[in-house]
Design a protein that fits this description.
two-stranded antiparallel ribbon, alpha+beta, 101 residues, single chain, Alpha-Beta Plaits, 5 strands
Length: 101
């Protein structure tokens, strides 16, 4: 009696077909923009403290400043925790050259 089981896993050639299927186009991630409304901001620094990617830093006066918007993942932590509603995160629309609202 043969106790070996056939594995239900696909063969190497099937895996290779799946891995290369649709990989002709380079994948590009979403990019985000951060708007800081200076008139509403009281420079508390909460947005900078909550930014996991350190996209927002405080300048010499303590006001938040965008360092690198390309690092932004769009998590929205800065926007959610801002007590003054002085910051907005939105996705950039690369094709049209405008931002999504």
């Amino acid at each position: 009696m043969d106790l070996r089981r056939k594995s239900g896993s696909p063969s190497q050639s099937e895996k290779g077909k799946r891995d290369t299927a649709g990989s002709t186009k380079p994948k590009k991630g979403k990019s985000f923009e951060i708007d800081i409304f200076r008139d509403w901001c009281k420079s508390c620094g909460i947005c900078s403290a909550f930014c996991p990617r350190e996209c927002i830093m405080l300048d010499d006066d303590g006001a938040p400043t965008m360092i690198d918007s390309d690092r932004c993942t769009g998590c929205g932590w800065c926007e959610l925790h801002c007590p003054d509603f002085a910051i907005r995160v939105h996705q950039r629309n690369e094709k049209a050259g405008t931002e999504d609202v």
